[in-house]
Amino acid sequence: MKSQDIRKAYLQFFESKGHLIVPSAPIVLKDDPTLMFNNSGMAQFKEYFLGNATPKSNRIADTQKCLRVSGKHNDLEDVGFDTYHHTMFEMLGNWSFGDYFKKEAIPWAWEFLTEVLKLDKDRLYVSVFEGNEAENVPFDQDAFDIWKQFVSEDRIILGNKKDNFWEMGDQGPCGPCSEIHIDLRSDDERAAVSGFSLVNADHPQVVEIWNNVFMEFNRKADGSLEKLPAQHVDTGMGFERLCMAMQGVTSNYDTDVFTPLIEKVEQITGLKYTSNEVKNISEEQNKINIAIRVIVDHVRAVAFAIADGQLPSNNGAGYVIRRILRRAIRYGFTFLNTKEPFINQLVAVLADQMGEFFPEIKKQQTLVTNVIREEEASFLRTLDQGLQLLENVVDETKGTEVSGVKAFELYDTFGFPKDLTALILKEKGMLFNEAEFDASMQEQKNRSRAASEVSTDDWKILVDGNVESFVGYDQTENEVKITRIRKVDSKKDGVMYQIVLDATPFYPEGGGQVGDKGVLVSANETIEIIDTKKENNLILHFAKKLPENLTASFVAKVNTDLRINTSKNHSATHLMHQALRAILGTHVEQKGSLVNPKNLRFDFSHFSKVTDEELQQVEDFVNARIQEQLPLIERRSIPIQQALDEGAMALFGEKYGDNVRAIKFGDSMELCGGIHVNNTADIWSFKIVSEGAVAAGIRRIEAITGEGVRQFFASQEELLSEIKSALKNPQDAVKAVVSLQDENAKLKKQIEALLKEKAKNMKAELANELQEVNGVQFLAKQVDLNPEGAKDLAYELGNLGNNLFLVLATAEEGKPMLSCYISKELVAEKNLNAGQVVRELGKFIQGGGGGQPFFATAGGKNAAGIPEALAKAIDFVK
């Protein structure tokens, strides 16, 4: 059974059981500050489990893209070394929100696996929670009794808290779970050792394929459990493992989920992958297998993350994606001998393979391919740089053990991997101190963990029920009551309080727009609100202190100055998006934005630099829409399909409901939950201040509106006044600057000519200073020239013969530079290399450099080191 058919069979089965089939949420989470990525099937449904929102159906089924590479669930370092861990994986799920429970969920699981898929019952084992006396959670008798209807007791394992009690996190909904495991070993192996003993023992062929989580409890901040008001079912089934079981193989990588990608890697590299059925492979082949598994796994995670809107970067979720891709690149570099970008070629295979169920990968194929190609090229350059730095470390090392601290610096600063460092050193008969490396790594992790440590108290509920609402589209001030509060303590921000209001006018951060600031005012006090965010469908107002009387009536007042400026920038962002599509082409899609009171930032797909002429056209387009005084047409709640049919732009990677909010200014129409001006005239003016590349195929424009434009023009006017004053107030400032530039160019030419003449004059003087060392004409001297003059002098002296070894030092404006010239004949005869010479001597001036074998230069920071560098130069010809 093909993987596509298995996926279809699952969804059709649960559709027949009254489940609504919903699409996968994006792999990148944009509205959950507690998670970077969707790391489980239930992540997109957290607000329903918490009771903060109502699902559109009490029964839902889906297949969810998941990523486990950070935080509590992190499988990254296992990937490639075994046959069943992955960074990205699919989780087939069926969900009950206060509807059915154990007596339906367990029989349906058994029915699907044994009757629809016809898996061998004799290979299946099940587990139930054994209970935990310390936490007052009893043995799951209900699940045990239900399972006895389908399997004998000798196939029911009693699992502990680690294996059979699932928790969302340190706090929140949780409950016992009942798993189904399959034994895929041969009949002989099964006869020799019972599969019962291998369940949850990390055996690669005895694996969990189904997990029914029965959400019954809420974990509080003090660790205690309380009963949830409703019982839920959260089912997760590992799609890749199920494919392994259905396709009669013993490795996820031998299924058709991965084999097309593996075949493409084999075609590109000329190396072969051996399936898990082949035993006793060589150590060399095992390394190839691991590298190929790493690459085909990681490309899926990276490609889908980019397709869902997360570009590789140096921080946050973007850094995690970059790290995954770099791990794949270095495995190819080290073990598959791939020195050029190639992983990007796998995207086409992935798009053909998964485009039917996940259309985003097909739609974003070109962008994903280009971004990965650029990342590959960049990191391969970094690896080359790391190789050179490692050479320097080796040269400085006495003995055969390199400092683990130095090895960690290479890893931390340049991303140079530990295993590659070990491999290169091994070839030189060396190693590095792993204990020091690990200690440095742990120190960094401890610093990072300490910086991000957060402790969150339980919610204190002041008003029961889901009474919270947002009134900020119509009001910036409203009478409110506090419905719940909690304390949050972090290393970064200190003690903060999160306040939830019954009818808040404060807009929570989202859709690129920053959260509102303002105050809560009662008869007796004023509480400053320093930020507003949304978490699990609750709007959280952040304050440094709580009101003394939590039950009092308050007036929530948004800082309208900040709100108005933000709304101008947000509306201008929509108009600019329209302008870019009109001027550059409809391939332009928004890939990210930031809207705050000061400015706006807009990332978009486009494959070349936007010219000055095009930028001016965009600016003129937006300002024309401002001049047209277009009124805001807001559709507060419109069916999403109707909005799309009417031409509304939906932003890729965003999660939309059945009904959406549509914002229209003239011909610009977008789905958007943000705050906007009532009329484009309110924006006043629009000005682009910068344009540049963010990643391959992604450009970024930064712009200002309103007061920002006024301040910009005022500063430009002041700058022009200062320039005129410096030029003695000429009538035509431009003409005066051009004249100054012309005069400067003439003077530069005169100086260059004088320096060349000076170099020629010095030639005869220095020729007399040459000394013969081992048959080589040698000179190392500091000269009063600029670096270009030193180069000219070196070549002039080089014409005197074919056995010259020359090192000249300059220190123009205190910046030291070493230039080395070696006659080409000497390079060949004595195996000398000017690049190596300057790299070695460059250490004395705290710098480095390189060049050709016969001429190279090195710059540095320490001019005081020049005499020692010159003194050491003779060592190369002795």
Oligomer: single chain
- Cα-based radius of gyration, to the nearest Å: 33 Å
Mean pLDDT: 91
Biggest sheet descriptor: 9 strands, mixed
Percent of residues in beta strands?
25-35%
Q: What proportion of the residues is helical, as a percent range?
A: 25-40%
Please tell me what the overall shape is: globular
Q: How many E-type strands?
A: 38
Termini Cα gap: 74 Å
Decide which structural class fits the backbone.
alpha+beta
Compute the number of helices. 25
Low-pLDDT regions = none
Cofactor: Zn(2+)
Enzyme class: ligase
Subcellular location: Cytoplasm
Family: Belongs to the class-II aminoacyl-tRNA synthetase family.
How would you characterize this protein structure?
The chain is of the alpha+beta class and 878 residues long. The strands form nine sheets. Strands 1, 2, 5, 6, 7, 8, 9, 10 and 11 form a nine-stranded mixed β-sheet that branches. Strands 14, 15, 18, 19, 23 and 24 form a six-stranded antiparallel β-sheet that branches. It has a six-stranded mixed β-sheet with strand order 33-34-35-36-38-37, sandwiched between helices. Strand 26 (590-595) and strand 27 form a beta hairpin. The longest helix has 35 residues, at 733-767. The N and C termini lie far apart (74 Å). The model has no long low-confidence stretch (mean pLDDT 91). This is Alanine--tRNA ligase. It catalyses: tRNA(Ala) + L-alanine + ATP = L-alanyl-tRNA(Ala) + AMP + diphosphate. It is an enzyme of class 6 (ligase).
